[in-house]
Amino acid sequence: MSATSMDGLLRLRQHDLDSLNLVHLISGIDEDLVDQAATPCGASTTLCGYTEWVSTQEPSVTLGWDWQLETRPTSSRVVRLGLPRTNVLVVSGERNPLPWEESLEVLASFIDNFDWNAPAFDAVCKRYSS
């Protein structure tokens, strides 16, 4: 892995992502998007939120992203919305930084390939159940 640079970004090669051990920090619901008074009774609503994950090793990696509850007749799950927020800039094997949007796309693919959905949604359910 790499150290944080003067610009505050942690530069990681794409294959270094595989060795990241991320743990759940916090998840919540975007309450400002929910206007219950404006939603007619019986109307379909959308539940959206956010989740933040951090690495267990140094230097600290942070990854956050938005999610949406996707409901189907037989199941429900949360899915990532948009690109992540992070302190990571992915670099090539030669350590050349990828363009920012391309780096975020690589990180989005990384997110989609690890089991974050259930821990994030479970945390939301526990947080708002009281």
From TrEMBL:
Superkingdom of origin organism: Bacteria
Entry-linked Gene3D superfamilies: 3.10.450.610
Pfam families, per database record: DUF4902 (PF16245)
Record-given protein name: DUF4902 domain-containing protein
Natural source organism: Variovorax humicola
